[in-house]
């Protein structure tokens, strides 16, 4: 099949080639009716703009990148799906980069932006240093996701981990739980995310006079259900007793549920369990999982809005958006 040309779209829409070009390149001086007419013809004919020509005409590629550590993690998979749909609706292609928590891979993502391959990057860093972020975020617009420090002039979008951790811990305390384990205390050093969640967890315990016991910080060597299952299982087999488990993420919670079930511990009767991220799987676990629900739509929309403004030329101070969250209360830790 012959490639659909700009001229074909113009003839189909009954407009000039210049008008089609203006729509493709998102120039503002096109009436809404004409824009809709041209977009309908583009859809009907399956026209795909030539990326090289578009870049030469506008200085832009029409492509954005999303970089996360591991797209196999359910939270990142759902985040990528949400941002991808939003980017497509705004006329962008989205490249997905997986860094594997490697500093070198994280640097490569930012260097790829400097080479002009993409117009901007939405990036959730894991280990890259602030100095490197400052060095590599000058040429290409970058919006950071998460709780780490950001260079001056770089926008960030996050949820308030400390506040959310306090809220879910307070929920457990209202259920009468007093020995609350923290599952997912990283064995190789806390990330900024875990540090903030642990701070909120410990603050809520101290404010109510509940015990903050270092033995109840159950370390895992990976972000996985398997690692959490081992940590909880080893703790129980070693005689540690607790009546609630605050899990750093939903995978940790699913692993904890498995370890408890294998040992005949009833959830929530003996041990209440909470997770974090509210991924789809949590609605189908047995029991269904009480978990922190970050507003992914709000987070994705905020990141896209900030990035589009940067791509469009905004050079102001860094802006910091806190996306809302809530607690999805389900069977593993039901309301009293």
From TrEMBL:
Pfam short name (any one): Peripla_BP_3
InterPro entries, A to Z: HTH_LacI, LacI/GalR-like_sensor, Lambda_DNA-bd_dom_sf, Peripla_BP_I
PROSITE patterns: HTH_LACI_1, HTH_LACI_2
GO molecular function: DNA-binding transcription factor activity; transcription cis-regulatory region binding
Keyword DNA-binding: yes
UniProt key word Phosphoprotein: no
SUPFAM superfamilies per UniProt: lambda repressor-like DNA-binding domains, Periplasmic binding protein-like I
Occurrences of domain HTH lacI-type (ranges): 4-58
Key words, A-Z: DNA-binding, Transcription, Transcription regulation
The protein, known as: LacI family DNA-binding transcriptional regulator
Gene source species: Sanguibacter inulinus
Lineage: Bacteria, Bacillati, Actinomycetota, Actinomycetes, Micrococcales
């Amino acid at each position: 099949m012959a490639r659909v040309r700009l001229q074909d779209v113009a003839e189909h829409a009954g407009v000039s080639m210049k008008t089609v070009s203006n729509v493709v390149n998102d120039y503002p001086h096109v009436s809404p009716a004409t824009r809709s007419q041209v977009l309908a013809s583009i859809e009907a004919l399956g026209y795909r703009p030539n990326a090289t020509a578009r870049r030469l005409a506008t200085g832009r590629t029409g492509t954005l990148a999303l970089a996360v550590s591991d797209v196999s993690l359910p939270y990142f998979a759902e985040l990528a799906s949400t941002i991808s749909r939003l980017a497509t609706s705004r006329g962008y292609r989205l490249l997905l980069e997986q860094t594997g928590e490697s500093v070198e891979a994280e640097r490569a993502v930012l260097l790829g932006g400097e080479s002009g391959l993409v117009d901007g990057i939405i990036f959730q860093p894991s280990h890259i240093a602030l100095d490197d972020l400052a060095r590599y975020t000058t040429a290409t617009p970058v919006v950071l996701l998460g709780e780490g420090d950001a260079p001056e002039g770089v926008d960030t979008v996050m949820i308030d981990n400390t506040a959310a951790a306090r809220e879910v811990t307070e929920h457990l305390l209202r259920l009468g739980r007093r020995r609350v384990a923290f599952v997912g205390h990283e064995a190789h050093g806390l990330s900024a995310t875990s540090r903030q969640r642990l701070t909120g967890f410990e603050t809520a315990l101290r404010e109510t006079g509940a015990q903050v016991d270092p033995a109840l910080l159950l370390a895992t060597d990976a972000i996985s259900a398997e690692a959490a299952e081992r940590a909880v299982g080893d703790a129980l087999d070693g005689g540690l007793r607790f009546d609630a488990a605050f899990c750093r993420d939903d995978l940790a919670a699913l692993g904890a549920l498995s370890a408890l079930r294998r040992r005949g511990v009833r959830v929530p009767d003996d041990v209440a369990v909470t997770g974090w991220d509210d991924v789809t799987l949590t609605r189908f676990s047995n029991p269904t999982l009480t978990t922190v629900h970050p507003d992914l739509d709000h987070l994705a929309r905020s990141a896209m809005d900030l990035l589009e403004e940067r791509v469009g030329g905004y050079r102001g101070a860094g802006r910091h958006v806190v996306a809302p969250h809530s607690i999805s209360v389900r069977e593993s830790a039901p309301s009293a």
